Amino acid sequence: MKKFLPEKIVIENGCKNDIIVKNILKNLPSIPIEYSETINNEYLFQNVLILKRYKGDFFKKCPCSPEVICCGYYVLMNAENCYLNCTYCFLHKYVNGNAILIYTNIDEMFNEIDKVLNKNQTNFFRVGTGEFSDSLALDDITEFSKIIVPFFSKYDNALLELKTKSININNLLDLEHKNRTVVSWSINPDKIIFEEESSSPLLDERLESAKICTSRGYRIGLHFDPIIHYQGWENDYKVVVKKVFDFLSPDNIIWISLGSFRYVPELKSVIRDKFPKSKIIYGEHILSTDGKMKYIKPIRLVIYRKMLSWIREYSKDVFVYLCMETKDVWGKVFNLELENKGDLEKLFPQI
Amino acid sequence: MKKDIKIIEINSINYKDDTFLYSFPVKIERITESIKKVGLLNPIILFGCGDKYKIISGFKRFFAYKHLGYNDIDAFVFKSGSISDLEAFLISIYDNIEIRELNIIEKGNILSKLKKRFNLNDNEIIGEYMPVLQLEPSKKLLYDFINLCKLDDDLKEHLINRDVPIKVSSLLTSLSDENLKSISEIITKLNLGANKIKELVTMIDEISKRDDVGIKKLLYDLKVIETLKNEKMTISQKWERIICILKEKRFPTWNDIEKKIIRNISSLNLPPNIHFKFPSYLEGNKYTFELEFSNSNELKNIGMKLIDISERKEFLELIELI
User: Fold this and answer.
1) Which of A9, A202, B73, B179 could form a disulfide with B215 if both were Cys (CB 3.0 to 4.6 A apart)?
2) Which residues, 6 or more positions from A112, have their beta carbon under 8 angstroms from its beta carbon?
3) Distance CA B70, CA B67 (A)
4) Residues in chain B closer than 8 A to A289 (CB atoms)
5) Is A36 contained in some domain?
6) Interface of B with A (CB under 8 A)
7) Residues whose CB is less than 8 angstroms from the CB of residue B172 and which lie 6 or more positions away in sequence, other chains included
8) Which of A65, A233, A286, A295 to probe by mutation at the B interface, max B CB count within 10 Å?
């Protein structure tokens, strides 16, 4: 796994006493530091780590089009951008530049989360930190997990999901998580990892890390997302499914998601220009009803049905769901009639 | 900037010096007719250079005069050393933009000359000269225009005649020379406009990259070149055939499914007053029947037909697809 080494740490005035800042400076002692009154746009295009306070809402509903069945996920805005540089990542379009932003006012974040969870005690919340950044890729530097995992251990009506491709699990191993944290990995065949996720650990490394987490009592989530359709995909993904169950017991897997490769149309030219060797944008994609480019429906149905059948060979019970899919695809794959009234949320395991 | 207006002998003008030439195409039919009818309304602009003159602005007017066999021409003349070459170039640009719209090739020629002939750096060109040409100051756009110079003259003329915007034209400049030649032939022979050029180039480029096949080989293997040369087909038929070939190759799974859908619908033998519609690319979970009837008997007959259709194997296969 490629290590992150910024050329500089830029710290916005006013946050240098925040715990995250202290952790980062402790763990990156040789990186030059610059203090700045405000963060100018020019920093955003540099290989720097920017530490600043976030001024918006930390706790948001995961952005999902009304045309697809929503799973009711919540995301935390604790960081923005990622150095793993996977070719297909929406961050190439969403974020302007190379800099990674870490938001340091986590006391405000926690106050916000606490208010929402306490105000809605009869609701169950799945909350993730891996939407705008990888949850653990920088954890050896920020030590954020040491703060957020214990924080979520207090709540019965929430599960924290740390979604990652990395193997930065050391900080998790001795935490009192009280079963309120799920550690999940995005997984793909090694061919895809080599070609599209080249800065990320290999599949076996990710699964080994998952296995270690299970030995510490964590439940594991797995995200087959994005599933790339190519000649030979069936053999390769079947091998991945087998490996999952070679490494992990189904009892330790809380959920598996399936999501075929999809992207906003504007991302296509970005991928083409930034990663000219990548072929993922040359699949049979069409503009779907939710405004994203997706494989044509017959291809998606084949993908999901096959993936589900392979998973079911190893476990009849593990919860499998589709990410950002339409009602009709849900019906065809699972024989389920779902509406966007919380139907899918109710199916999730609530522990 | 002092300039004199003079009558200059045609033979004393060094028209081969193209330092300030960016017009394209250099066609003189219209200007020749105009001069014949009303004379030269705007003197050309020359730069003194020893005993000869260089043309700063007015190449077409000069060539028209030469074609008409005139011996001399009205000109504004800048004395040698009175202005720099770059200032002269700027005069030439302003002389033209005041009276006409420059086409994309001409803008490309100007930007290319500013960089390669006058050695300006990108920031200078982007900041000072792109706005003069009414172009958004952008490095990408600068190079999109400069790269147009590599296209052959036939293609350049085609792009101008069909008013193809820079966003589409720049798709062509990213191709290698060999690939460009193959695609250029299709574009000019089928007289394609902007949308079709974009569709064609995108489709060919994506198939080539997906399958790791050179464009020239691809076009031969898919019989695109053969279709282009087929004298029994009209231009329109050739285009339809070529784009169909490319779509089949680019979207093979969808192509098979679409054929199956069309085949099955055809097998249902729908009467002319029942129309069957399926959602675009099957995204959606409903088919639609559109019915036309003018009395209750017709409606009854349609109803009976629909019941019959609903039990047909071909119809059930269609339902499975959606």
Assistant:
1) B179
2) A57, A58, A59
3) 8
4) 283-284
5) yes
6) 206-207, 209-210, 250-254, 257, 280-285, 321-322
7) B151, B155, B180, B183, B184, B187, B197, B201
8) A286
For the beta sheet containing A293-295, the strands, ordered from the edge strand earlier in sequence to the opposite edge, are A262-263, A293-295, A285-287
What residues 275-334 of chain A have any CB closer than 8 A to a CB of chain B? 279, 281-282, 284, 286, 288-289, 296-299, 326-328, 331
CA proximity to A297, closest of A318, A328, A254: A328
In this prediction, residue B1 has a pLDDT band, given cuts at 50, 70 and 90, of low
To test the contact with chain A by mutation, choose from B283, B285, B320 the residue with the greatest count of A C-beta atoms within 10 A, namely: B283
Residue of A nearest to B209 (CA): A279
Beta carbons of A201 and A165 less than 8 angstroms apart: yes
Q: Which residue of A has its CA nearest to B286?
A: A328
CATH topology of domain B1-100: 3.90.1530
The reply to whether residue B253 touches residue A296, judged by beta carbons under 8 angstroms, is yes
**Contact: B253, A298; criterion CB under 8 Å:** yes
Chain B contact probe: residue of A268, A278, A284, A287 with most B CBs at under 10 A: A284
In a domain, A3, yes or no: no
State the CATH number of the domain containing residue A120: 3.80.30.30
Pick the residue from chain B with its C-alpha nearest to A326.
B284
Write out chain A's pLDDT in tens, 351 residues: 778 899 999 999 989 899 999 999 999 999 999 999 988 888 988 999 999 999 999 999 988 888 899 999 999 999 999 999 999 999 998 887 889 999 999 999 999 999 999 999 999 999 999 889 999 999 999 999 999 999 999 999 999 999 999 999 999 999 999 999 999 999 999 999 999 999 999 999 999 999 999 999 999 999 999 999 999 999 999 999 999 999 999 999 999 999 999 999 999 999 999 999 999 999 999 999 899 999 999 999 999 999 999 999 999 999 999 999 999 999 999 999 998 888 998 899 877
Domain contains A351: no
Domain membership of residue A235 (yes or no) is yes
Amino acid A114 reads: D
The domain in which residue A107 lies consists of: 8-346
Residue of A nearest to B208 (CA): A282
Interface A-B: count of C-beta contacts within 8 A: 41
SS3 B22: coil
What is the reported pTM? 0.88
- Number of domains forming the structure of chain A: 1
Q: Tokens for B168?
A: 């589409």
Residues in chain B: 322
